[in-house]
Amino acid sequence: MASTNPRNNRKPVKPFPTRQMFILALCRICEPISFTSIFPYIYQMIDSFGITDNKNEIGIYAGMVTSAFAFAEFSTGMMWGRLSDRIGRKPVLIGGLVGTLISNAMFGFAKSFPIALVARALGGGLNGNIGVIQTTVAEIVREKEHQPRAFAIMPFIWCLGSIIGPSIGGLLAEPTRFYPNIFPPGGLLEEYPYLLPNMVASIILVLGILNGILFLEESHDVLKHKRDYGRELGQKILKFFSCRSRQRKYEGPDSYESPRAEETDPLLDRSENNTAYSTAGSSSTEEDDGIATPKGAGVTRIFTRPVVAIIISYGILAYHGMGFEQNMPVFLSTPRAEYPHHLIKFTGGLGMNTQTIGFILSMQGIFSMIAQFFFFPPLARYFGVLTLYKFVMFTFPLSYIMVPYLDFLPESLQLTGIYFVLAIKIIWTVIAYPCNAILLTNSTPSLLVLGAINGIAASCASFARTFSPTITGMIYSAGLDIGVVGLSWWCNALVCVIGGLQCLMMKREDFEGQHDEELEQTLDPEDVERIAVKASVRSAVPITSAEVAVDDYGLVVQAVDGEIANLSKSYGRGFSISRRPRGAPIANTAGEGISYRGFMRDRRGSAQRGSISTTTRAGIEDQ
């Protein structure tokens, strides 16, 4: 008796895309290394500009440099997201790395504060990779079973880069002063004492750019079949250095150089939103314009209530997270006051020196890496992403409320208390950001607009990070003036409470990954057909109107004819593909079948999903 267990009928889960995630991670790690490498020497660099005689004001100018990056990133984040929907994720990601490279070189040669400020703003404005990378991960990893693991990788890579970056900046700044035997005085590095760490970061960026050009696949559903000359070159390089069998394994089913690979392409499955052909050799680019951003996908249909809610939650998370990062080192360095005797009205920090503070802050990256592996994936699988996100956002205030009360601990226990508070904050942060990314992906009405949505989300977070350090710092200073050192921490906790209450209103059914099943409800029929035919089928007779001819299957005749022509070319001589009438028998079906899933238009003119299959020396049959 056949089993009726639904588990037995479930489709096998595809393996985790380790190779592409590794290549994407190599591109990603360049940015945190570059971004964080300036932190160890930014104070000394601004001091060397001679912009102010008051040492207390140097921190203000250092904050302006950080804010310039965040504000520029906020200003252009949506633009880069929408551009990635139009031209693809890969070119925008590579362009972002190039922008960071230009910013690094300019910052290393800066000899005045305005030049340094412009360099950092340029780095933020030319790089919109935060949202684009999240979109790419969402498109590479479609299976929900793999999402917790996939969305935890990029935060882990950021943590790894945030350990390497400060090490480069701290060790290589002012080399003629610290390593005179290796870098003798009087040369270029004495004139530009902060050039060397930026040069090393730039070399890492160049390697990341080459890695992306040669090996990173385009993940955009519509544009992924466009010919990629960089990846073709990368495959030739690999083939030169490896045996043919290993190269064939690397190229996978979507190689441009093997037309027969299309016959058994495992990516033909609809869950990957792919089509069953390759556009190798196609030089047609005039049809690309307008493909990625359907004109019928209006703002009200893209920015649904769940999408807006998650973006707002992302902004709240970024605001209080940046507030913690800005406040913690200031609190640790604030001189001690008398032992507190009141639960609310007390002042003073922990009075630690810069070496101790630096060690404490560097431990955050290590804690984050551990939490990425041992906390988020199992918790997300056990409790579910939405439930876990609600819990974390609602309990986040605990890590802020406890910080000022470290003053009450004996000096021998304060370091333990600090690590305890940091551990809570880091674990909660490590859980919150991947959860937010997964929920945003699953709430998106269409993956065709996921890049724009992630770009707007990244802009919202950058906007929050732009103002959070300034506002938090002002509240902290005001709290010291009135004798309440915990004022800024408790205000941040209040922001956390607002974020937690907002999350409690989120419903599970809003985050069930509706973009695959309800795409036709988000896009107009004309948009669906335009995308399917212009980008997927590339038929010889383009559809220019919604009033088109359909066959007795309800399939667009031009689309079917175009697909037959493409398949015939890919098979080569000795094979023929033809259309057969409904009900006609299929002969000579010994050849391998190829399935093609596309879009149909029924007699009423509404767009529907449909699928056909082709068989060598046979024809097209309805599935």
Task: Characterize the structure shown.
This protein is mainly alpha-helical and 623 residues long. It has 3 domains: 12-226 and 288-293, Growth Hormone, Chain: A (Up-down Bundle); 295-519, MFS general substrate transporter like domains (Growth Hormone, Chain: A), CATH 1.20.1250; 524-622, no CATH class. The chain has helices at residues 6-9, 18-28, 30-36, 42-49, 58-87, 89-108, 113-125, 129-140, 147-172, 175-178, 188-191, 195-215, 229-241, 244-251, 299-302, 305-333, 354-374, 376-383, 385-395, 397-401, 411-443, 450-482, 487-504, 519-522, 525-537, 557-571; strands spanning 593-601, 607-615, 620-622. It has a 3-stranded antiparallel β-sheet. The longest helix has 33 residues, at 411-443. The radius of gyration is 28 Å and the shape is globular. The chain starts with 5 loop residues before the first helix and ends with a strand.
How are the SSEs ordered, and which strands pair?
Elements: H1 6-9, H2 18-28, H3 30-36, H4 42-49, H5 58-87, H6 89-108, H7 113-125, H8 129-140, H9 147-172, H10 175-178, H11 188-191, H12 195-215, H13 229-241, H14 244-251, H15 299-302, H16 305-333, H17 354-374, H18 376-383, H19 385-395, H20 397-401, H21 411-443, H22 450-482, H23 487-504, H24 519-522, H25 525-537, H26 557-571, E1 593-601, E2 607-615, E3 620-622
Antiparallel strand pairs: 1-2, 2-3
